[in-house]
Amino acid sequence: MYNVTIWNEFVHEKVHDEVKAVYPEGIHKALQQGLDSPDFTIRTATLDEPEHGLTDEVLNLTDVLLWWGHMAHDRVEDEIVNKVVQRVQEGMGLIVLHSGHFSKPFKKLMGTSCDLKWREAGEQEILWSVNPTHPITDGVNSQIILEHEEMYGEFFDIPTPDELIFVSNFEGGEVFRSGCTFTRGQGKIFYFRPGHETYPTYYNPEILKVISNGIRWAALNSYAIKPVYGNSQPVRPLKVLA
Q: 196-216: b or e for each residue (b if 16 or more CB lie within 10 Å)?
């Protein structure tokens, strides 16, 4: 059983009718319903809850945290950001979705600007699986076609990923590293690009399959034994050979 927390700033859906029409209960609720599985226990958290819904108790019980944010990155308190980063380094999995690339936790974990090119024009996106033996692509088609999505284009200012899972191409000719994994401390991180708020991407079964696979992959280190640092004595005395 995996304990999953879906964090969504939940701002667009309250102030933009076109977003509310697609996700009337919020992106977090659509993901919670779409990812429903007997081996997932899923809770949600949003920006306006106390401590953004990410209390110590919630974070300590979370195997994998999903993060969707866009227009309120600056409203996320640094104290909470630091706690999220610490939990990832301790072994909590993190899945960063779409514009979460510019979130405080992801930027702090990457150590770069995480900037990119973008264009909102409802273009077709083709996600190409470039690592077909990876657990995240298990049971996933070699290409996922999204008829309408926001364009993200290179250069994407991130560190070189540990693994490249998906590459996208768009109608305008741009390409993008849309599925990347990283390790920070004991924690596994998966960045997955699709999911603009005005398109029904999070109802797509193939997208949900990728995210479900990502949860199972990222949870692998959530109960890892923490390394012991500092001054250390021998486990047992060394025997002197005659």
A: bbbbebbebebbbbbbbbbbb
